[in-house]
Amino acid sequence: MSIFKRIRDISVAAINDLIDKAEDPVKLLNQYLRDMEDDIADAEVAVAKQIAVEKRLKHQFEEAQEMVEKRHQQAMKALEAGNEDLARRALQDKKSHQAKAEDFEQQHANAKSNADQLRKQLQEMKAEFEKMKNRKDSLVARAEAAKAQKQINRTMSGFGKDTGAKGFDRMSEKVMQLEAEAEASRELRSSSTSLDDELAALDKDNVDDDLAALRAELDSKKAGN
């Protein structure tokens, strides 16, 4: 497993754990993206260094190869000139550069393989980052909806129990108490004025009788005339 994949996996595990425990996953999602950006920036630096190593080794291999060809041509030229000793020394140096070339070639092949692998992993990190960016809006919307639902559930759990319903019960009892007091007051008033009412009724009846008698008297006089 590469260092980049380990960094990514550790980051994902840590963020997931924090999201499970945290009250504000939106902030953590933003932090997660920032952490991924930092990881990608670090990875880009590492990849750039590896590419630089690859290019340097390639250049050294090409230089060694050029020297091998150069010494070969020089040895040929020396031999044609009849200078066998010079040709021998040129061939010896050619062998030295040939060994270097083979060594640089192997190192370059390894470096190129590593660089290609790091490039691939870097692209995977960038693709993962883009995927997380695309998922962020959906996750944020879900987080907000979950928080709203949690708030509504918390409110509904006490709705009509400890506040409104009890208040209505108290007001109902108070209205019943007021009605009872009003009824009692009416009954007290009725009992306290009953005697006066009866006497007033008697007086009223006497006046009516007197008025009837007066009318009878008046009618009698009219009849006599």
How many β strands by DSSP?
A: 0
What quaternary form is this? single chain
Shape: rod-shaped
Mean pLDDT: 80
Helix content: over 70%
How is the main sheet built?
none
Q: How many domains comprise the coordinates?
A: 2
Q: Helices and strands: which structural class? A: mainly alpha
Distance between the termini: 144 Å
The run of helices and strands is HHHH
**Annotation field: number of helices:** 4
Strand content: under 5%
| Unreliable spans | none
What is the gyration radius calculated from CA atoms? 55 Å
Description:
- With 225 residues, the protein is mainly α.
- The chain folds into two domains: 3-159; 171-225.
- Helix content is 94%, strand content 0%.
- The protein has helices at residues 3-21, 25-80, 84-158, 164-224.
- Helix 1 (3-21) runs antiparallel to helix 2 and helix 2 runs antiparallel to helix 3.
- The mean pLDDT is 80.
- Pfam families: PspA_IM30.
- This is Phage shock protein A.
- Residues 93-116, 179-202 are annotated as: Disordered.
- InterPro entries: PspA_VIPP1.
- Residues 107-116 have a biased composition (Polar residues).
List keywords for this structure.
single chain, mainly alpha, 225 residues, 2 domains
In short:
This protein is mainly alpha-helical. It has 4 helices and no strands.
Topology:
Layout: H1 3-21, H2 25-80, H3 84-158, H4 164-224
